[in-house]
Amino acid sequence: MSVTSRLADHVVGLSYDRIPTEVVEKTKHCLLDLLGIMVRARFEAESSEPVTQAVKELGGASGKCTAVGNKETFTPHHAALLNGTYAHSLDFDDTHRRGSLHPGAAIIPGALAVAESAGAGGKALITGIVAGYDVGCKMSIAARPKVHYDRGFHPTATTGVFSATAAGASILGLTSATLQNAFGLNGSQAAGSMQFLENGAWNKRVHVGLAAHNAIYSLIMAQKGVLGASHPVEGEAGFLHAYTDGANAQDVLQGLGEQFEIYYTALKPYPSCRFTHSPIDLILDIVKGENIQAGEIEEIAIGLQTKGMDIVGVPAERKRRPQSVVDGQFSMHFTGAVAAAYRRMTWADYDKLSDPGIVRLMDRINVVHDPAVEAEYPDKFAGSVTLKARGKSFHRFTDLAKGEPEKPLTWGEVVAKFNDLAAVGLDESRRERIVEQVANLEKLESVKDLMLLFRP
């Protein structure tokens, strides 16, 4: 039996009753977390309105599905495109460290659109999301994330089309053969380039939305009998050969059906690249614990692994002068300066990109390669900080950032994050109803009832 067929069999064979209670609860955390992000992004991410208008121009507002914050209703694939783009626009969405990706941003919007259009309930949604995380995370792990990134690919999007397809197939109750055809079509849809880093482009956001969008395309085509390529995961020109080097396709199957990858997914306390989080935690620990003020800081040396430096640390002259929100999200200098000066790092802090005090502090930050941090990667996103102030040197090291499964956000913290983010578009009464419905998601008869709460 092929790797692709075994992956498809797992997806269609997974039932709600086989999912452990702790995995069900983690799924609720991930869903509520992403819903809050989508709301805030719809109203405040600079890319959201242009993308929304483009989708309307393309005829997307002609269906019955919800794109959060919009009074119009959309076709399922266009709702998935918009919600997926919103979900990845703040860089506040969940992360999976072994796979080095943001799995929920494509999976959950795709699953919501399919569930809403199909009239599916909460148990089906939970099962689909869990199946999707298994597919996306295990494929990304097998693709050897460092090599995949070095080739210029963004795994959140490249694997996202497969994982969102899996989630939708589970919700729709498709056969393994139909899903394998859909996966075969995914092989010609998998895309996502890291070139966006050069100018802070919105590709990063849109190509995740397109992964969710294209998943629904492949599902509909497969249901109508469109023949997809065989062995799209492990074949000679399949994903694990075309998009990386040295992959072992059997790695996709490790722990399948026993180790549910959503449980090993982290939720972010800060709206920036995950490589910045361990250092932010350490800076906050130092400045709060020692009561250090920004004006007292002489220098901050931040230790990262090579890949972290490549993405958020170099070139230093560019990272010290971010010109856009995307630049700021991928600047260790900016996020570290905000943490040091304001003892936090929130979405609202991106209005400080040109703040004179932050600019001065960015000039005092150096990002360096730390062999101890490198030794933990890719299994752990570690970080180190040496902060000099008052003529003293304060050093910290951590192998895990807050929000990882070993240091999880509590349900209360997830609810607080949701309320903080969603307050811009939803009143308190709606937010309370959403939290209640997600907390009892397995009892929800129709996902549409949940999605209606996100329409103005």
Helices and strands in order, then pairings?
Blueprint (H helix, E strand, L loop, with lengths): L2 H11 L7 H24 L3 H10 L7 E2 L6 E2 L1 H12 L16 H15 L3 H21 L2 H6 L4 H4 L1 H13 L3 H11 L16 H21 L15 H4 L34 H13 L7 E8 L1 H8 L2 H4 L5 H5 L2 H11 L13 H7 L2 E5 L1 H4 L8 E7 L2 E7 L12 H12 L5 H12 L7 H6 L4
Parallel strand pairs: 3-4
Antiparallel strand pairs: 1-2, 3-5, 5-6
Helix pairs in contact: 1-9, 1-10, 2-4, 2-20, 2-21, 3-4, 4-5, 4-11, 5-6, 5-9, 5-11, 6-9, 9-10, 9-11, 10-11, 13-17, 17-18
Describe the structure.
It is built from 22 helices and six strands. With 456 residues, the protein is an alpha+beta fold. The protein folds into two domains: 308 residues, Orthogonal Bundle (2-methylcitrate dehydratase PrpD); 125 residues, 60s Ribosomal Protein L30, Chain: A (2-Layer Sandwich). A four-stranded mixed sheet has the order 4-3-5-6. It has a two-stranded antiparallel ribbon with strand order 1-2. The N and C termini lie far apart (49 Å).
